[in-house]
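Components:
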Amino acid sequence: MGGKQAETYDVIIIGGGPAGMTAGLYTSRARLKTLLIENALFGGQMTTTELIENYPGFPQGVSGDELSRLMEEQAKRFGMETISDDVTEVGLENGLKKVKTYGGEYVCRALIICTGTEYRKLGVPGEEEFRGRGISYCATCDGAFFKDSRIIVVGGGDSALTEALFLTKFVSELTIIHRRDALRATKIYQERALSNPKIKFLWNSVVHEIKGDSVVRSVVVKNVKTGETKEVEIEGAFLFVGLMPRTHFLKELVQMDETGYIITNENCETSTKGIFAAGDCRKKLLRQISTSVGDGATAAFAAEKYLEEG
Ligand code: NAP
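Structure:
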């Protein structure tokens, strides 16, 4: 295998979102030889958030880009090594953890998994076909392409509402399609969306099919109460129907729930000794930057204790 020769780190962290960066800050300050592997941008989902209003210390809010940049700078300050690569497999060998990436193989005594989540697919005809041709999962990335367009946003959670509110800056018409008649999102986002004159709602409705030619042209929407279907002409659709953990590469190495969220105890310890999980990929009540930061610190401290006792 190409790339770096296997060398033993005290700690390897997989994922450079708020959980991973916090874990790295703590383990490098504890003078543990630490490697953080990130496959895209440091900051994870934060990087695609326009304004973060619920992370303490920023009374006027802070952009996702800025918070990511600040956390990255702080995490790297104490000697943590980083590489940009995709982890393909994790295994155990002689009490050590072996992490394979596309470019190399790395070995550590303690492993902290902070791989977060990715957007769940709606799973309807046309979704894959028109991805990038009118179908998007990221308003901050693609919103500007939809200037003066008619779009729909699917979902009723925090992602759907915050991204819809952001998209009102660009579009001419925006309809949120939600499968129930009550929103799941935090109350303040509900208030803002319900009172925004640019946002309309189609309640009790689901998208059945996405249609178009070279680009998206319409969606077929079904009312789940009446069974009635109708075709709505659009130029774009943003889909925010929840998140899926990025844990497939772990196979059966640690215990997970039926969706793939990693099961841990309150110290972020998984079912396998020396493997810890922190942040959104962990089964827990609340997935926020603040809870990821807390998890990262806990997992790092637990890893330090594990190494001291080992
Ligand atoms: P979520 O809270 O799981 O909401 C998913 C939404 O999609 C729900 O309204 C759900 O409907 C709907 N849905 C699920 N499957 C569907 C399907 N097949 N067809 C149609 N609708 C479907 O996901 P999220 O909004 O991505 O949020 C995920 C986590 O990130 C949450 O913990 C959230 O608080 C957090 N987050 C926070 C912020 C923030 O604080 N600023 C921003 C974004 C995300 P039902 O309601 O009927 O289940």
